[in-house]
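Saturday, quiet lab. Running sequence design on the structure tokens for the scaffold JK sent over.
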């Protein structure tokens, strides 16, 4: 599924280290670490009626990833929230917005991968766009990718870093197959996640998802599990094989950009009865209610929700 362009985004104002500039004038130095080696961390945020859902959790993950990469200077939550507010106000944005928040190690004095060459502090990039959830509620088609997710002893997936080549290669396979997304396995052949989302299956009345050994600690994933706890919905977190997905009653994926979306087909196998199931619909409704009622009000006087 190819995202369509929203004409309102043609005049976007982007924030780069506090400078608010038109998207066509936005510039990053060729000496920046994210250009030189993908050396940066990022978060995807969504704005609902003036509130950013799970903002503090996202900023905590951003900071944790930057600490794991030994960034020497990490902006405070208050600093980032201030810049988010400035950027959204400059674009007159209050709802239906996805924000790409990126923090790089910063500009280097000369080319090279040695972090000691970084002597100017980090680069903070805030890119907001008018963008609805990217996945259709009518259901998705998945294939299983040949690209495996790294285990922690190769590259710890708990670092939410900018090097997305594994995901991009998997997405290429999905595109070639005419599918919406690609399921990715770990080195042992168990389900890790999809190329851009976490994955859940439904067995009877129980929701099941994989451990985060070979995938990021998803914030939408955690929200779904929390909703299960609060609404007395049975759930399990364990290793999942492809066969368990093939024979599942339902399957759905989760992520900030796409929220919750049902998966109707995997590797040519129809999941369940080939429609978005009742449990998926229920969890989607609970998630939408959560985003409508919760979130950090980024504008002055709105409270934290």
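Result came back. Writing it out in full:
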């Amino acid at each position: 599924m190819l995202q369509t362009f929203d004409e309102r985004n043609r005049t976007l104002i982007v924030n780069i280290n506090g400078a608010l500039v038109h998207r066509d004038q936005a510039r990053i130095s060729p000496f920046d670490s994210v250009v030189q080696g993908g050396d940066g961390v990022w978060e995807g945020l969504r704005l609902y009626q003036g509130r950013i859902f799970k903002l503090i959790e996202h900023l905590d993950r951003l900071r944790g990833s930057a600490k794991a990469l030994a960034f020497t200077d990490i902006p405070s939550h208050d600093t980032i929230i201030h810049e988010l507010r400035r950027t959204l106000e400059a674009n007159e944005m209050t709802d239906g917005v996805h924000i790409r928040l990126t923090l790089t190690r910063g500009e280097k004095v000369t080319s090279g991968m040695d972090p000691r060459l970084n002597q100017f502090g980090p680069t903070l990039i805030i890119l907001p766009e008018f963008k609805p959830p990217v996945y259709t509620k009518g259901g998705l088609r998945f294939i299983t990718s040949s690209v495996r997710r790294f285990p922690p002893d190769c590259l710890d997936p708990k670092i939410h870093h900018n090097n997305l080549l594994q995901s991009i290669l998997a997405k290429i396979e999905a595109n070639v197959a005419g599918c919406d997304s690609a399921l990715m396995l770990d080195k042992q052949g168990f389900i890790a996640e999809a190329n851009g989302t976490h994955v859940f299956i439904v067995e009877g009345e129980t929701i099941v998802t994989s451990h985060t050994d070979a995938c990021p600690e998803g914030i939408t994933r955690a929200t779904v599990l929390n909703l299960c706890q609060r609404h007395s919905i049975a759930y399990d977190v364990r290793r999942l094989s492809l066969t368990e997905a093939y024979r599942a009653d339902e399957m759905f994926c989760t992520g900030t950009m796409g929220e919750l979306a049902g998966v109707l087909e995997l590797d040519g196998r129809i999941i369940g009865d080939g429609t978005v199931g009742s449990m998926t619909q229920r969890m989607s409704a609970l998630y939408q209610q959560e985003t409508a009622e919760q979130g950090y009000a980024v504008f002055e006087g709105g409270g934290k929700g």
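Notes for JK: The mean pLDDT is 96. The first helix runs from residue 33 to 37. Ask whether to fix the surface positions before the next round.
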